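@channel anyone free to eyeball this complex?
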Amino acid sequence: MREITYSEALREALRQEMRRDEHVFIIGEDVGIYGGAFGVTRGLLKEFGEERVIDTPISELGIAGAITGAALTGMRPVGEIMFMDFMTLASEQLVNQAAKIRFMFGGKATLPFVMRTPAGSGTGAAAQHSQSLENWFVHIPGLKVVMPSTPYDAKGLLIASIRDDNPVIFIEHKLLYKVKGPVPEEPYTIPLSTSEVKRSGQDLTIVATSVMVKRSLEAAAQLALEGIEVEVVDPRTLKPLDAEPIIRSVMKTGRVLIVHEACKTGGYGGELAALIAESEAFDYLESPLVRLAGRDMPIPYNRLLEYHAVPQVENIVAKARELVQGRI
Amino acid sequence: MNVEKKLELLRQMYTIRAFEEQAEQLYALGKIHGTMHLSIGMEGSAVGAIAALRPDDLILSTHRGHGHCIAKGADLNRMAAEFMGKATGYCRGRGGSMHIADPASGNLGANGVVGGGIPIAVGVGLGIKMQKQDQVILCFFGDGAANLGPFHEGLNMAAIWKLPVVYVCENNQYAMSCSTRRAFAIQRISDRAASYGMPGVTVDGNDVMAVYEAVSAAVKRARAGEGPSLVENFTYRWRGHSKSDANVYRTREEIESWKKKCPIKRFRALLIKEGALTEERAEQIEKQAYDAIEDAVAFAEASPDPALESIMEGVYA
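replying in thread with the prediction:
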């Protein structure tokens, strides 16, 4: 199969959906002639024009309101917030309005929109441009939260998100944009709320999100050389979560390591750990549930410090080894 | 405006007053759960503004939105039922006073967050424009909302894209306890329109016809594709901010002086003077409004609570 980047996969999803449905449009800062801060929407202005690829002033709350209101009129907007950190500026509309309108109205409104935003560190952008705030939105009923880890998932999940009738927070990762992988040319969907086993193994389950799926797969490849077979499960949609593949995997391996980039305290890993502990998988656990996550600190600028603020492949390898060897 | 429509506006104003007086009573009797925000004394603003709309136009309302809802043509039974949290209410009891909505009739909802509707209006305007419709979205907010960030982002975006939005600021002079004298260094909120490149006008919000004229001009402009406007209706709320308000931030004299400027009495007197109405007919309209609300409350009281099994419905589509 043809290989393209995560960024190209996202662009292809946008282009194909905009060709298919005239209600789909893009709105955000510098998404037009500039092509988006990370280039995801590059070239779309030329094909679809200013009416459907709308540059906004620097008004994140306004963008969130614009997609909320437009969705109320039957449009299917795809908003872009340049850095996930700035989702804090858009939060009032997303959290208090969009997430609740359908419920507050007794089920009489639908809000089919997607808000795309890149999260994550590793680009030297320091504390205000590197956060992973997915759990802020996971905590809000009414929002769906999607975090693709591969080009294939990026395209299929974005198309599914655009076609979904709920507000979807679609979280990309800056370090994944240039990662290549096999992606079919034709449009396809990956149903939301489907977790996937990215690699099979029987010694340990790693549940990882976003860029940590990639790092966990690299770690798994190294561990395989030592004879440790790791199963890597990617939730892909954090909310609503498809828990069953995770629970089944833990029942098979008896050990679980949860890996994410966001700060450990209050992060998604706590939710996953609790979910496993509450499930029938609990009786199968041979060692404690272990989380490997970002340190509880702002992302530092210095390259060395930034590198060590979040889990890296070697950290995952080391922690997995400890777990499998019964040293935890 | 023909006589028939003027009488309809008077009927709406009485209906709003009757609804809110009844609401207050229900609260006093302990029949209402939560809080509510009454617009008694501000009926001219809601009724005059919405009178300028076509039935298929849209509104976004506020926490003080009973008047907007009634003026937009709400079914009083379903509205009262929602107010009482019943299954027969507009939102099946999920919304209550602060979230009454009926998208089918163009009421895109009251809003519990001050200024919350202002950016949504941008999106609604954008959706209307992109689908090449000629509707207008009328977005209400209060003086307090004009000091929030969403006001700035929303009005600017609506203006740069020439969206069919009419922003109606109901300046009742108090954001909870904070008076406009303390919260603004300018006299007229409508002066801010100039900085967004849109027309701004301040009208006597207790003069229903003045509100109608000003909003009509703004609606005409919006429908013609010329962009948004800001209309400031200068008015006053007679009651406290919500039910927990002891009114310690203003004087009894001030409140009484504004009661003398009652928008309903004023319009009624005008219609009688114009010969459009007799005292008897006026009494009849008033009584019919109070009767209709009594019936609506009876309907609401007789309605069931939402079924517990339905508790999670509507969280996701």
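from a first look: Residues 87-104 of chain A form the longest helix (18 residues).
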